[in-house]
Design brief:
- The chain is an alpha+beta fold and about 325 residues long.
- Helices cover about 15% and strands about 35% of the residues.
- It has helices spanning about 30-40, 75-95, 100-105, 105-115, 125-130, 250-260, and strands at about 5-10, 15-20, 45-50, 50-60, 60-70, 115, 120, 165, 175-190, 195-210, 215-220, 225, 230-235, 240-245, 260-265, 270-275, 285-295, 300-310.
C-alpha cells in the first residue's frame, strides 16, 4: 500500500487548495472530473477507476483526497490517515476552513510531509509531529472567531479561537480551550407551536499544558443525571441528561458525584462529554417559528418566519429548515 498524492479541494468550488506528491504517478489525475464526480454522484469513500484508487473524506467544507496507483490492501489505513490529517490541522491551526488553510499553507505542507514516508502512512500524533513544525499559525484577517458557546449548560466560555482558561500553577504558555457545541432539532405544528424537540451536544477541550497536570471542568450544580431505571440523580429544575458518554480519561465516578469533568489531558483536542437532553427543556429554544397561510381561489401562499433568539455571545454554525407539503393528487 503506497499513497502517491494527497490533495485538499474546496467542496463548494473544486478549487485545489494544496497538494503534495510522495511518489511520481504512472498517470496523471484530472482533478476537475474527479470533483464533478464527487459533487454530482454518491460515491463510496474508496473506489478504483482506470488503474487509480481514490480515497476521500469531507470535513468542514474541504475534500481530503488521497490517490494510489494500485489496489490498496487496507483502505481503512488511508482513510484514517486523512482523518488524522484533518485533526492535526485542527489542533495546530484551530478552525479548519478554506481561508485558514490558505493562510497557513506552509504549516499544512509541513504536516503533509510528516504524516507520510515515501507514501507509507505514519502513526503521527500532535506530540510527535509538533517538534518538526517550523511555521507559526496565521489567523485569517476576514474571519471572525467562531463562538460556538453558551449552550444549555450555561457555560459562557468563549470559543477556541479566543477563549482560554489559564492553569493556575503553570506558566502563560499553558492554556485550555473549551467549547460547548449543541445540535437542536425541533418539530413545529402547522400553527407554529412546538411539537417535539431533541438536543444533543458535546463538551470539547483543546489542551496545551504541562504533562501530568489534572484539570477539572465544573458543570452547574443543578445538573441532573437520568439513570437507566428513569430515576434522576439530583434535584431542582436544571438540565437533565438523558444519556451521556465520557472520554476514557474523565473520572466517571467523580462526574456522577460532583458533576465535574476531571481528567489528565493529552496535548490536542479531546471530546470530554457527549450528551443528550430529555424532551422537557427548562429553557426556551434559541429560535421561534411563525407561520401564515393565505388562500385564494387559485393559489395558496405559505409564509414562514424564523426568528433567532440566540444571545449575542453565541453563534449558529448551521441552520436547516424543512417544510413538509401535501402531495399532489
Amino acid at each position: 500500500m503506497t499513497v502517491t498524492d494527497i490533495c485538499l479541494l474546496s467542496a463548494s468550488t473544486g478549487e485545489l487548495i494544496i497538494s503534495h506528491q510522495y511518489i511520481k504517478r504512472s498517470q496523471p489525475v484530472l482533478l476537475k472530473p474527479l470533483y464533478q464526480k464527487l459533487k454530482n454522484q454518491s460515491v463510496p469513500p474508496t473506489w478504483a477507476e482506470e488503474g487509480i484508487t481514490y480515497h476521500y473524506i469531507k470535513r468542514s467544507g474541504i475534500l481530503f483526497v488521497a490517490f494510489d496507483d494500485g489496489e490498496t490492501s487496507n483502505n481503512y489505513v488511508v482513510l484514517d490517515t486523512l482523518s488524522r490529517l484533518f485533526h492535526l490541522c485542527k489542533d495546530l491551526i484551530g478552525s479548519v476552513n478554506e481561508e485558514s488553510i490558505k493562510v497557513n499553507i506552509l504549516m499544512v505542507q509541513e504536516v503533509l510531509m510528516e504524516i507520510m514516508d515515501y507514501g507509507m502512512p505514519q502513526l503521527g500524533t500532535l506530540k510527535t509531529i509538533k517538534p518538526y513544525i517550523m511555521s507559526d499559525v496565521v489567523m485569517p484577517k476576514t474571519t471572525q472567531s467562531q463562538q460556538i458557546i453558551g449552550g444549555l449548560f450555561g457555560l459562557n466560555t468563549p470559543s477556541s479561537a479566543g477563549s482560554l482558561i489559564k492553569v493556575a500553577q503553570a506558566s502563560s504558555k499553558n492554556e485550555v480551550y473549551l467549547d460547548v457545541i449543541e445540535n437542536v432539532s425541533a418539530v413545529f405544528s402547522a400553527s407554529g407551536s412546538l411539537s417535539s424537540c431533541s438536543v444533543s451536544g458535546s463538551v470539547v477541550a483543546k489542551t496545551f499544558i504541562q504533562e501530568g497536570c489534572q484539570i477539572s471542568v465544573e458543570l452547574p450544580d443543578d445538573l441532573q443525571l437520568l439513570q437507566g431505571d428513569g430515576d434522576q440523580v439530583g434535584f431542582g429544575s436544571g438540565i437533565v441528561l438523558k444519556s451521556w458518554k465520557l472520554h476514557k480519561e474523565v473520572n466517571s465516578s467523580e462526574f456522577e458525584k460532583t458533576k465535574a469533568l476531571k481528567y489528565t489531558p493529552d496535548e490536542g483536542e479531546m471530546t470530554l462529554l457527549n450528551y443528550q437532553l430529555t424532551d422537557e427543556l427548562p429553557v426556551n429554544l434559541p429560535f421561534r417559528l411563525f407561520t401564515k397561510c393565505k388562500k385564494t381561489d387559485r393559489d395558496v401562499t405559505l409564509s414562514l418566519k424564523l426568528r433567532s433568539e440566540i444571545p449575542p455571545h453565541a453563534q449558529v454554525v448551521k441552520a436547516t429548515l424543512t417544510v413538509r407539503l401535501p402531495k399532489k393528487h
